[in-house]
Amino acid sequence: MEIKVLDTTLRDGEQTPAVSLMKNDKLRIASKLDEIGVNYIEAGSAITSEGERDSIKAITSEGLNAEILSFSRPIQKDIDYCIECDVDAVNLVVSTSDLHIKDKLKTTHEKLLEMSNNAIEYCKDHGLIVELSAEDASRTGLDFLEDVFSQGIQTGADRICFCDTVGVLTPSKSYKIFSRLSKLDAPLSVHCHNDFGLAVSNTIAAIEGGAQELHATVNGIGERAGNTSLEEIVTSLYVLFGDEFQTSVKTQELNSISKLVSRLTGVYLSPNKAIVGENAFAHESGIHSDGVIKNAKTYEPITPELVGHKRKFIVGKHVGNKGLNTKLLDLGITVNEEQLKCIFDEVKVLGDRGKTISDVDLQAIAYNVLDIHKEDKIKLVDVNVVSGNKIMPTASVKLNIAGEEKLEASVGIGPVDAAINAVNKALTEFSDIELVEYHVDAITGGTDALIDVIVKLKRGDKIISARGTRPDIINASVESYISGINRLIGE
Ligand code: MN
Hints:
Blueprint: E1 4-7, H1 23-35, E2 40-45, H2 50-60, E3 67-72, H3 76-84, E4 89-95, H4 98-104, H5 109-125, E5 129-135, H6 142-155, E6 159-164, H7 171-181, E7 188-192, H8 199-209, E8 213-216, H9 230-241, H10 254-265, E9 282-283, H11 286-294, E10 312-313, H12 321-330, H13 337-352, H14 359-369, E11 378-386, E12 394-401, E13 404-411, H15 415-426, E14 434-442, E15 451-459, E16 462-470, H16 473-490
Parallel strand pairs: 1-2, 1-8, 2-3, 3-4, 4-5, 5-6, 6-7, 7-8, 9-10
Antiparallel strand pairs: 11-12, 12-13, 14-15, 15-16
The structure holds manganese (II) ion.
């Protein structure tokens, strides 16, 4: 059976505290959602603001395949704004619990039913598809809820949706409720929140109970603890239920849309996030790494390729010999048994001190063991920089190149640029080396932080990374740069 997917990243997801998306960002996310095969996209809430309407209009005029919806209360003014935005459908949200009806809306069951039906009629008169959503449905009496839905369907609602607005369903309750409501005469949808970490489980139980549509957001972002996560629910249905419940979402694109949304919203993922977290396919433990290398199925329920992710072997204190050797080979470093043991011992010592070892750290340890640095052709003797707000940053650098000292000076956009330019001037014979990436991190918080610079250098088709860590950004930059060049020319 095909389960339809409504993505509400741009509406419920945007209600994540401190998230506000610009028009172009919303359009990019909507286009990507469409591309990966989501059926319905809730683009926003038209009543919110002029800017929100601009974004929704940009999405509706994009000619996407997906049905585009706007959130709307059962109020004519809200619906008029939806019409103005040219959406295909409205997510007509009617509060149904006593708590909402009495305390929030200060009205009665009868008046609420009337409001809901009038709004549906108005929407249908204006050619809109209506998904009638019952807000706080999980704290609403089922008989009243059934009244709201069945009257709504009679009035013309095309689909109905049960919202667990505060995330209080459990899987067994969800299954029971959906088994009953799915007998009504319209496709039934499920909208879950993750307050108890149960959003995906409750959504699955609802589908087993008869729901034909699910609501989700990319990375599970949304109010409070968020919503059902798109990548988790889509992958669960695909892998754990196979033919029983399918969606049209392309799983291979899930990691890339997750990264896009995380970048544009500034909401970063915890590393252990299912499916798309940094560690979702990372292995550290020796026994696990060894198993995965022999047959990935031993410790991975799905392949990273299925969701567009990558497998990683992390080096830490649990690393085994085989995992470490594979990692070193990945980095282009071949070692003999004795060298491997030395590197292994050093990694264990660092691991016991609580440090995880990055690729660059491991490279440094390995090169030390292999004694590559002894043969460093280029050594930094001295670096001086003058910088200020009125003068062009100027640097002088003294290098020892194979025993001979060379002094050069240069200017630059900033002090780091000036220093690197001076190094380049002293090293014209290696002008085919290209800096492809320069990354700075302040390891601790204050202005006295340790500065960690990582550079990636390229010569021909060979790329290496090198690191410099110093309290001074100029020293850290020059050191990492020279160490990278030594490595490139030394091999
Ligand atoms: Mn919600």
